Amino acid sequence: MAILVNNTAHLIIVDGKMFIPRKPVENVDIEKMSAKYPEVGALIKSGQLLVKTPKEAKQIADEYEAMEVDELKAYAKAHDIKLGRAKSKEAILEAIHKAEAKKWSEKGE
């Protein structure tokens, strides 16, 4: 089992697992997933999905969470994400995560 981190700006969904940008997903059986979905190996090889230790995964997640409100708003604007009434950092992060999950689930990816 491994920890994978989505190193892209968009949501990746494979075998029912959602890989939200910069949010570690634990207990991923890479061999099994790669055998069933060969694109997983390609995503890892290209650096879009990163295989990390628990310490490395936490550091990546912390960097994403460390973004300031203005940076998060700029990210949302660049990705056409409507923040609605979200003003706090936590509310903006939640809005971004929900919007990305919805966008990619509607595309069937």
Description:
- This protein has 109 residues and is α+β, with helices and mostly antiparallel strands.
- The chain has helices at 30-36, 39-46, 54-65, 69-78, 89-106; strands at 2-6, 12-14, 17-19, 25-28, 49-52.
- Strands 4-1-5 form a three-stranded antiparallel β-sheet. The chain has a two-stranded antiparallel sheet with strand order 2-3.
- A hairpin with a 2-residue loop joins strand 2 and strand 3 (17-19).
- Helix 4 (69-78) packs parallel to helix 5 (89-106).
- It is globular and about 45 Å long.
- The chain starts with a strand and ends with a helix.
Strand fraction band?
15-25%
Domain tally: 2
Low-confidence stretches: none
User: For the largest beta sheet, what order do the strands appear in spatially?
Assistant: 4-1-5
Major sheet: size, sense and barrel closure? 3 strands, antiparallel
Helix content: 40-55%
Number of helices: 5
For the structure shown, list the relevant keywords:
109 residues, alpha+beta, 3-stranded antiparallel beta sheet, two-stranded antiparallel sheet, 5 helices, 5 strands
Summarize the structure.
With 109 residues, the protein is an alpha+beta fold. It has 2 domains: 64 residues, no CATH class; 38 residues, no CATH class.
